[in-house]
Write a structure and sequence with these properties.
Strand order of the largest sheet of chain A: 3-2-1-4-10
CATH superfamily of chain A: RNA polymerase II/Efflux pump adaptor protein, barrel-sandwich hybrid domain
Number of strands of chain B: 15
CATH superfamily of the largest domain in chain B: P-loop containing nucleotide triphosphate hydrolases
CATH class of chain A: Mainly Beta
Strand content of chain A: over 45%
Distance between the termini of chain A: 25 Å
Radius of gyration of chain B: 23 Å
Number of domains of chain A: 1
Helix content of chain A: under 10%
Helix content of chain B: 25-40%
Number of strands of chain A: 10
Structural class of chain A: mainly beta
Oligomer: heterodimer
Strand order of the largest sheet of chain B: 7-8-9-3-10-11
Chain lengths: 134, 285
């Protein structure tokens, strides 16, 4: 599980559905959630989690995407499998891993040092732990 | 209000256990008592019924049932009790079983009607199915119009479809009679359907007390879909890892990254969780 330390910047809730916004390394992240039984408030420091298979990669991003979370990353290394590639990314101080198909990786011409954007849908992001209250 | 404040030393198979209960129940409330076997659930019910002694106090709607050395006799407690075994009088018809408790033909007729047993009023228990017997037990427990209804795993010997019918009857009877009820069960779906409140016992102590949703919904952070399991195997597939996890009677697979794969070992107890958005439902075929 990839983890990111972030601070809660906004909480919007209606009928038990919540959108929580976070800030990490000056980037805004958003999480869609059903109910919020973790005791968070604006200012809380949390550990966010996202599965490696839920991170998509994009190069030369243009156009408008519905995906809330877009992290500017640099490719640090690869583990190349026969069908899948594990791409190790650096997002500032955080290390992330993305699992993509080999064919996508080859098509994108991914190589070490490339700048890519990691895309995470807000429904794929979760709070793993509340580190400090706001 | 029912105010229970009791202590009792129970002799366990390995060591003695202290049953220590401080519980307040509102009139008309339907409370499920849950917990592992040997946690003291049945003993609590038996103490309330007056079938076992305990130290402390029990007061029920202003009346003292237990107060130091004074104990109110079982027959004066106005309790209805439904056990796992039906305990019906085999030589009496269904109707006679009910009338034996209280000579109120009108109430007996009404209860049998509510539980759709009217056509069986003259049958002997031997000619009833397990589920029908248990419904008769339930009706009989209500014949005295008890202040408190105690049920100790009344469904555990029944098949699933019969359970549903009996759950339905219990809900209907609770709606009509509004009898304050304490109900011992292990089954989360039963608790969720029937109870307004659930108290979980462990080693004789109350460890949780809340609404069924708050107590039963196991979550990890913002992850709403959470089950407990045990890792049976972790294997590598291409560049990813797969953990095979046993959850109850089922085996599931969870994809892990390399870092996660290193942090778990086979045999470890784990919580399998995902956000409420990811799982999909399909009808059983």
């Amino acid at each position: 599980m990839n983890t990111l330390e972030a601070k809660v910047s906004k909480i919007e809730s209606i009928d038990g559905v919540s959108i929580v916004s976070f800030v990490t390394l000056d980037v805004e992240l958003r999480m869609m959630s059903l109910g919020l039984n973790t005791p968070i408030e604006v200012g809380s420091e949390v550990l966010l989690g996202v599965k490696a298979s839920s991170i998509a990669l994009v190069k030369n991003l243009h156009g408008i995407l519905s995906i809330s979370n877009q992290l500017q990353c640099r490719i640090d290394s690869f583990e190349e499998g026969s069908l899948l590639w594990s791409v190790k990314l650096l997002f500032g101080e955080f290390r992330l891993e993305s699992i993509v198909t080999k064919s996508s990786a080859v098509k994108m011409g991914l190589k070490r040092g490339d700048e890519v954007v990691a895309l995470i849908k807000s429904s794929e992001l979760s709070i793993l732990e509340v580190k400090a209250k706001g | 209000m029912i105010d229970i404040n009791i202590e009792k030393t129970l002799q366990g198979s390995s060591k003695d256990m202290q049953l220590s209960i401080n519980l307040q129940i509102q009139e008309q409330e339907f409370v499920a008592i849950s917990g592992k076997s040997g946690s003291g659930k049945t003993t609590l019910l038996r103490v309330l019924a007056g079938l076992e002694s305990a130290k402390g106090t029990i007061s029920v709607f202003g009346k003292r049932w237990l107060d130091g050395h004074h104990t109110l006799a079982v027959q004066k407690r106005q309790i209805g009790f439904v056990f796992q075994d039906y305990a019906l009088f085999e030589n009496m018809s269904v109707e006679q079983n009910l009338l034996y408790v209280a000579q109120d033909k009108e109430l007996a007729r009404h209860l049998l009607e509510l539980t759709e047993l009217s056509s069986m009023a003259q049958r002997l228990p031997a000619r009833l199915s397990g589920g029908q017997k248990q419904r008769v037990s339930l009706c009989r427990a209500l014949m005295k119009r008890p202040k408190l209804l105690l049920m100790d795993e009344p469904f555990s010997a029944l098949d699933p479809s019969m359970r549903l019918k009996l759950q339905h009857d219990i809900l209907r009877l609770h709606k009509e009679f509004a009898t304050t009820t304490l109900f011992v069960t292990h089954d989360p779906s039963e608790i969720y359907k029937l109870a307004q409140r659930v108290v979980v016992l462990e080693d004789g102590k109350m460890i949780q007390d809340g609404s069924p949703k708050d107590v039963l919904l196991k979550t990890k952070g913002s992850q709403k879909f959470s089950l407990q399991g045990e890792i049976l195997e972790i294997y590598k597939a291409d560049v990813i890892y797969v953990a095979v996890v046993a959850i109850g009677q089922q085996i599931v697979e969870v994809v892990l990254d390399g870092h996660e794969a290193q942090s778990f070992i086979v045999g470890q107890g784990v919580q399998v969780s995902t956000k409420a958005f990811a799982p999909t439902l399909s009808a059983l075929g």
